[in-house]
Amino acid sequence: VPFGIKDQNPFYRIYDADSLQLLLKGFNIIGERYYKGIDRKHWVPDIKENLSNIDSQSKGYTQAVACIVCEKI
Questions:
Q1: Does pLDDT of 56 surpass 90?
Q2: Residues facing 54 on adjacent strands
Q3: In whole angstroms, what is the distance from residue 32 CA to residue 15 CA?
């Protein structure tokens, strides 16, 4: 899911750490990875704390994502 400063537009929601935790309530998290977009071509691994201030709304495209593997409790 798009990750960074919490916001939304007509196409997608951007989750911050708190809203992502709320989204995943009722799920057991098996793994999580975070990635930062580079020049709209590549994704590089990063840590959640580095991406928490990324603003994907003003740029008009997703600049960071959270990839979560989970199972329903």
A1: no
A2: none
A3: 14
